[in-house]
């Protein structure tokens, strides 16, 4: 796979991994950085952007849910993420990268109509930090 195709696969994998679909973008990041170590910052940036966009798609789903019953159904009956977002606001989206709970936080933030700009910024910082730690470990 050439460099551009590798980066496209990484972006796509990162986007899908942040939605309610399962995915392993970390493995794709590992593959890209192993094959093309010179793409370190490009890979880190695209993985972070793709994962943030995927998280924002979950936020958009939350915007579309009409009532709390629909929200709880979408969240699998768990109220923990909703409580956290109500209590801490957009800074809790620093944890949007955490498997399972991250999806819940993103959907809950949308449903609660938390400001999308602050949501996206906190989400992006958290996701970038996670990929940066992974990429740094790979580069050792």
From TrEMBL:
InterPro entries on file: DedA_domain (IPR051311)
Residue ranges crossing the lipid bilayer per the database entry: 43-65, 92-114, 120-138
Top-level taxon in the UniProt lineage: Bacteria
Record's keyword annotation contains Transmembrane: yes
Keyword Glycoprotein set for record: no
Keyword tags: Membrane, Transmembrane, Transmembrane helix
Protein name, entry field: Inner membrane protein
């Amino acid at each position: 796979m050439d460099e551009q195709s590798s980066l496209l696969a990484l972006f796509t994998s990162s986007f899908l991994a942040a939605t309610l679909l399962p995915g392993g973008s970390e493995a794709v990041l590992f593959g890209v950085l192993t094959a093309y170590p010179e793409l370190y910052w490009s890979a880190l940036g695209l993985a972070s952007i793709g994962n943030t966009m995927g998280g924002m798609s979950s936020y958009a789903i939350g915007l579309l849910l009409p009532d709390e019953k629909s929200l709880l159904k979408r969240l699998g009956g768990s109220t923990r993420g909703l409580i956290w977002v109500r209590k801490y606001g957009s800074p809790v989206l620093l944890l949007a990268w955490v498997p399972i709970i991250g999806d819940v936080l993103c959907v809950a933030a949308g449903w609660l109509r938390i400001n999308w700009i602050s949501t996206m910024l906190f989400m992006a910082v958290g996701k970038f930090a996670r990929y940066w730690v992974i990429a740094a470990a790979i580069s050792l």
